[in-house]
Amino acid sequence: MRSRVLSALFLLVLFVSAWVVAARNSVYTFPSGASFIYPTDWDIIERDDGVDVANDRTFVRVLDDVLLSSLDIGGDDLESILESYMGARHGSAGWDAADAEEVELDTRTALTYEYRVGDNRGLVVTVPFANGSFGVVDALSKAGRLRDEGDILDIAESFNSGEAVVSSDGADCTVSTDAADTVRVRVGPGENRTSIAFLPTGQDFIVQGKATADDDSLWYKLDKAEVAPNKAVNEVWVAVAEVESVGNCDAVVDVNAPPIVPIINAPPPTAAPSGETQSGGETQPSTTSGGTTPQSGSWTLSLNAVTNASCTGISNVSFPTSEVYGVMSVRVNISISGDSLRLNDAVLSRTGPNSFQGSVTLAPGLYVTIVTVVQSPTLITGAIVEGFTLEGRSCNASTDFTMTR
């Protein structure tokens, strides 16, 4: 099973890679770690004073915080950075702070300024970085008005530093809890994100960033290596309202939330009979730790016809499961031992009365998480969640399945 899943995962990476190319997205990363996405059919040239991307209509120059500093362009906020940049690069184009306009880029607010060079229109966007510094995206039409403003703003929205830091004065924001098994650690901001553990008590954890969930609740991103080093997840988050915060937490910067990947689309578990007779006449107990116990033996695992995938900063995509895994059903062996469910060679740990979860690392950067819900002694639903990194982006793919006895 391990080799089959590994082959399927490599195929999946190829599928998602092709999808990213089809979506016209390529990634450029500066030596500083800052990066941005640009259309793959645009040309790109690295220069000493910026990185240029262009098509036959529009020229765009992108500068990270290191390049801006080397050009003596600086400031403490978006407006001062924009004024400094305009004075250094477009002095003849004039500058009037009243003409600068704010624009929302996902969870960040940037500042834009329109200018002219002869008959050609230009647009400068100053972008706040997660590490507290700034970047600049400067676009100029090659003939008249700008006709690629959507692509320009997409470049600006994707432009960010490589790492988030908490504050500029060195006073870290930390969180902690004294209540055991209370604060749930989730893979993203929001109660709808998968819970993987409880926050350990009696420890201080450094906050790396913050984000607002769909229900407007505020969440902190923590260091996975500190909170959940043995979990096969990309990020860990806790609700601000559930933890005690200490330090300069007002300076915690906004960061992008990871994409939502559905784990299980199944009805809640139903109560099972107290015992069930197999074909051989043997009766097995139906509960362990208050939950339903599946029958041991050979089962049929049937995959859902559709696999869903997503990468950070890129929308979801769906494609036929058969094109990734090659087969739609396999025979597997299941056995129960205490609070563990063994699915062939994979050992899943009990996470609830009827739920089990486990992760298998296949290769560096490649892992699968198997999530199951025991609906009855002869029916299990779940999902195989694949995690991988593509072009520097955290990606997940989820395939639902049903197992029957």
Short description:
The protein has helices at residues 2-22, 65-70, 78-89, 149-158, 224-227, 322-325; strands spanning 26-29, 35-38, 43-47, 50-54, 58-63, 101-105, 108-117, 120-128, 134-141, 174-176, 184-186, 195-198, 205-212, 218-222, 236-239, 244-246, 275-277, 283-285, 287-288, 291-292, 297-303, 306-311, 314-320, 329-337, 340-343, 346-350, 355-363, 366-376, 379-390, 393-404. With 405 residues, it is mostly beta strands.
Please give the radius of gyration in angstroms.
25 Å
Runs with pLDDT <50, length 5+?
1-24, 164-170, 261-289
What is the 3D form? elongated
Taken as a percent bin, the fraction of beta residues is 35-45%
The description of the largest β-sheet is:
8 strands, antiparallel, barrel
Distance from first to last alpha carbon: 19 Å
Number of domains: 3
Number of E strands: 30
Give the % helix.
10-25%
User: What strand line-up does the widest sheet have?
Assistant: 21-24-25-26-27-28-29-30
Integer average pLDDT: 77
Put simply, the count of helices is 6
Protein structure class: mainly beta
